[in-house]
Structures are given as structure tokens and as C-alpha cells.
Write a structure and sequence with these properties.
Layout lengths: L2 E7 L7 H11 L4 E8 L9 H13 L26 E4 L4 H4 L9 E4 L8 H6 L3 E9 L5 E10 L4 H26 L24 H23 L7 E7 L11 E3 L5 E11 L2 E10 L4 E10 L2 E9 L6 E8 L2 E7 L6 E8 L3 E8 L5 E9 L2 E8 L10 E7 L7 E3 L6 E2 L6 E8 L2 E8 L8 E10 L4 E9 L7 E10 L2 E8 L11
Parallel strand pairs: 1-2, 1-3, 3-4
Antiparallel strand pairs: 4-5, 5-6, 7-8, 7-27, 9-10, 10-11, 11-12, 13-14, 14-15, 15-16, 17-18, 18-19, 19-20, 19-21, 22-23, 23-24, 24-25, 26-27
Length: about 500
């Protein structure tokens, strides 16, 4: 039986990308039935006029991308009676007239804080590490319950930050609806109730001069970054650090630097032990071509002996996830530009490979890993559901028949993690003492790959997923770095990548 959903839009001339993505997902999912699509009465303006003028100018000067589906079902004028026979009212308008109807929906009226007037502006003003969003359900008698929370990396422009969180956070509603279908409850699986968020912090007119100064500073940094690339300065470059330790007890501060000498950087390292030797696979990014390819070397003590290219294609390659499967050695690199996931087989290890299988045709996936746990194969990947090409906020889980990906079944709660601080993969999934872990990226603070997490997976089955952060590695363990975002270990050695500060400045730039 499907969940009956009424959707209320705001008064905008055209629904935004987030609303259109949400409606498109509803109409394409048999678990849900869109029973009413309407606009709300006008909402009183709660954004100061001076701030609104600034946002309007920003939108003209810096166009916000929009790749969301253009066509949606016809939108009807506001009619309270149309909202009477449904399980959930999803209200994007934040209109008081709509809130008065909350008791009509069996499972409440749901609102995202990202759609409050002025949401996301104050975080851009303050250069906040993340912008938090809550999904709240309003019920009969004025009851309020938080269903879930998420955090998104803050964009440095207020207009862009608002557009970003609005388009991204609709996935929170889809995830909560999926929970409602699967378990009968839309509340995220957590210990105890979540606090209810207050209204959005107000971006006042007198804040505009400070905000403009910071914005100009960021634009100058971006210009310096582009100039540094042209001059071969390798701004924001990644390099590797090699040390002794395992995946849980590694100390990045004690490791030895492996720094490329050419106009390139090294990132996404994976270790692989084969016939008594330890090999290191990694991305080599060329600043001149702006493409990455995969390289390999042999670890000898604290040195890396380069062996050459492992895989080079006319499109960007990164994240060379290498694994054994029976008598074969396979690699699943990141190939999101091709909009498919590729599985490569070693013909002459470690430098010659052939394409063995493909999956996810037409879908851009990033940082894909497969693993076997308790006799079952699983796949993690990061998928972009927005116009900003952001792969850092949503983790998707699939049940598969094996690493050749002949059968791929999405988990019913996808995306199983929504949070820029923990969602994106930062290495392989591994098991130790019967407990399952994965490494992930912290993409907060406006820096790609700001930090690294070790996540313990506490629930993994066909109907549920839960994890908790066991360790958080920040870029403070050695001088001159601004980020660290990937780790692997094998044969008593570990490797981590680090990002160097750009052009001698304190950080890189805000996205």
C-alpha cells in the first residue's frame, strides 16, 4: 500500500530545483502516491529588504545552476479541502494557513528548515563550517517532532548556500517517507528525541558590509588559485604520507611524506599485498590536463618505488579501489564522468588491466567500494542528486551478487547517510574482531576533504542501516596541511593523503 502525499509549494513563479526533484521522485516511486499538488497563500516577507536586494544582485552576477527535471504535474490553486485525505502533507511554503491544516494528515505536516525565509543566509555570512537542516513534523494540537537532521557544507555566497541546501535537503524527506513505509515510523533511528530547531538566524541589513568584505576576499582567493594553476604552483595539492600501523590505530603525524615532484598531485591511495610485495595504487592528477589517471608503485621501507601507470583513460580517473576475488585481482576506480561504474581485471599485475564489467549506466557514482559481510555482498557509493555536482553529502547502499555487479538492488532507505561530514567514502570497508568499519570524508569547512573519519557500522541489513563515528582525524597533525581525506592499510603499513595549503595562505577557498 502506497503512502498518500500532498505537496504544498510556495508562491514562486516556478518551483525550485529541489521541489521539482522531489515531485519527480515521488511520481516515479510506487511506494508513494502524489494526491495533491498546490500552492500556498502568500507568506509575509521576513527577509530584510536590504538583504533581499543583495541576494537578487548575487543571483544576477553568479547564476545558480539548475539541472533538475523541468516538467512536473499541473499545480492547483490553494484549496484546504484538497489536503484532507492524505498521510503526509509536505509543506515547502512555511505558510501559517497551511500549518493550520497539520491535523488533517495522518502522519503530520512536514517542513524542512531549509525552506524557511532567509535559511542559509546567516551561515554564509558567518562562514559556518556547515549549514544544518532539520525535517520537522507538525501534528494535532500543535505537537512538533524532529524526524531527522543533516549538515551540508556552507557555500560562500548566501544565495548559492540557500539554493544548495534547498535542493539537497529534499532527499531527507524522501528518506523519511521510505522509513515510514518500511517501519511505520518516519523518525530516524537514533537514541532519544532530536531537539526542535529554532527559526533561521536573521541576516540583518547591517551585516551586509562585513559579508561583502568576506565575499570579495573569497573571490580574490579563487583568482589566486586559478593563477597558481597556470603558473605551475600546484595550489591545494594532495600528497601522501606512509607510516606503520593499521586501519584503526594509525598515527598520521608519525608518517613519512611522499611528495610528487612534477606538475601533479597524488591522492586516494590504496595498498594491496601480492606475492610478498606491497603495492600502492593512487590517483595522479595533472594540473595541465586537469585529468587524473591511476599510478602504482612498490613500497620498500619508507620509500615508494614508482612502477608507472596502472590505468590511463581519456576521462578522469581516481579512487583505485583494488581487491581480490577468487583468483582474480579487480579494480573499481572512480569514473563518474562516464556516468557508469567500471570494473577492471588485472591481466598483468599491477600495470595492465582490461575492462571486465560495467554497472549504473547513466548514473554518476563516486568512490565506490564493494565488500562481503556475513556471506552477503554489498556496495557503497556516493551519488549526486543536485545541480551543484556535489558527491559529498549522500551515501547510497546496494545489495549486489558480487564484485562483477551483475545484480544491483538499491537499499530501501537510500540514501542511508545524509551528512557532508560523514557520507562520502574515504577508503575501503574492513572488519576487525567481528566489527565492521568504513573510512569516510569530512567535507565541511568549505574544503574538499577537510577531515577523515573511521565509522563503525552498527547495523547492516536489507531494511536498516546505522553507523557511528569512532574516530575523527583533523588536519592538525603536521604543519602546512589544510585537509586529509583518504586512508588505507595493509601488511602493517598505512597510507593517508593530505592536502597542502594553497599559495601560502591559511586555507583554499569556500565552495
Amino acid at each position: 500500500m502506497s503512502i498518500r502525499i500532498c505537496v504544498v509549494l510556495g508562491q514562486a513563479l516556478r518551483p525550485g530545483p529541489g521541489e521539482r526533484r522531489f515531485i519527480s521522485a515521488l511520481t516515479g516511486d510506487p511506494r508513494f502516491e502524489l494526491t495533491a499538488l498546490t500552492t500556498a497563500p502568500a507568506v509575509a516577507e521576513r527577509v530584510p529588504s536590504g538583504v533581499q536586494r543583495l541576494i537578487d544582485i548575487e543571483q544576477l552576477a553568479f547564476k545558480v545552476p539548475d539541472t533538475a527535471p523541468k516538467e512536473i504535474p499541473p499545480v492547483a490553486p490553494f484549496d484546504p479541502q484538497a489536503l484532507s485525505d492524505c498521510d503526509v502533507i509536505v509543506d515547502f511554503s512555511h505558510s501559517g494557513a497551511v500549518l493550520d491544516l497539520a491535523a488533517r494528515a495522518r502522519h503530520g505536516l512536514w517542513r524542512l528548515s531549509a525552506f524557511e525565509p532567509g535559511a542559509g543566509f546567516a551561515e554564509a555570512r558567518d562562514r559556518a563550517p556547515v549549514t544544518e537542516v532539520q525535517l520537522v513534523s507538525h501534528g494535532a494540537g500543535g505537537s512538533v517532532e524532529t524526524l531527522s537532521t543533516a549538515a551540508y557544507d556552507t557555500k560562500f555566497l548566501a544565495s548559492r548556500n540557500r539554493a544548495f541546501i534547498r535542493e539537497k535537503s529534499v532527499q531527507m524527506v524522501l528518506q523519511a517517507l521510505a522509513r515510514l513505509v518500511a517501519t511505520g515510523s518516519a523518525v530516524a533511528g537514533i537514541d532519544g528525541p532530536l531537539p526542535v530547531r529554532r527559526g533561521a538566524d536573521v541576516f540583518r541589513a547591517h551585516d551586509v558590509p562585513v559579508y561583502l568584505g568576506r565575499t570579495v576576499q573569497e573571490l580574490v582567493r579563487r583568482a589566486l588559485f586559478a593563477a597558481g594553476e597556470r603558473l605551475g604552483r600546484r595550489p591545494g595539492m594532495f600528497s601522501l604520507r606512509l607510516g606503520t600501523g593499521d586501519r584503526l590505530r594509525f598515527d598520521p603525524g608519525s608518517a613519512t611524506d611522499l611528495v610528487p615532484q612534477n606538475n601533479e598531485f597524488w591522492a586516494d591511495p590504496f595498498l594491496f599485498e601480492h606475492e610478498g610485495a606491497l603495492y600502492l595504487f593512487y590517483e595522479t592528477y595533472d594540473y595541465r590536463t586537469r585529468l587524473g589517471h591511476l599510478s602504482v608503485g612498490r613500497v620498500e621501507g619508507d620509500r615508494l618505488v614508482p612502477l608507472g601507470d596502472a590505468l590511463k583513460r581519456p576521462y578522469h580517473l581516481s579512487f583505485p579501489f583494488v581487491l581480490s576475488h577468487g583468483d582474480e585481482i579487480l579494480m573499481i576506480p572512480e569514473t563518474h564522468e562516464t556516468k557508469r561504474t567500471e570494473v577492471w581485471r588485472a591481466t598483468t599485475f599491477p600495470t595492465e588491466w582490461e575492462l571486465a564489467a560495467t554497472a549504473f549506466q547513466g548514473v554518476a557514482t563516486a568512490d565506490t567500494v564493494v565488500f562481503q559481510h556475513q556471506g552477503r555482498w554489498w556496495l557503497f557509493t556516493n551519488i549526486c542528486n543536485d545541480s551543484f555536482n556535489d558527491f559529498g553529502s549522500e551515501l547510497h547502499l546496494f545489495m549486489i551478487d558480487g564484485p562483477m555487479l551483475n545484480e544491483v538492488v538499491p537499499h530501501p532507505l537510500n540514501p542511508v547517510v545524509i551528512d557532508t561530514r560523514t557520507a562520502r567514502g574515504g577508503g575501503r570497508v574492513f572488519c576487525e574482531n567481528g566489527r565492521l568499519y568504513r573510512t569516510s570524508q569530512d567535507n565541511s569547512h568549505g574544503v574538499y576533504g577537510y577531515g577523515l573519519n573511521v565509522m563503525e557500522i552498527t547495523r547492516l541489513d536489507e531494511t536498516g542501516y546505522q553507523e557511528t563515528r569512532l574516530r575523527h582525524v583533523l588536519p592538525d597533525f603536521t604543519d602546512g596541511i589544510m585537509a586529509c581525506h583518504h586512508m588505507d592499510a595493509a601488511a602493517g603499513r598505512f597510507v593517508i593523503d593530505v592536502r597542502r595549503r594553497a599559495l601560502g595562505g591559511p586555507d583554499l577557498w569556500r565552495r
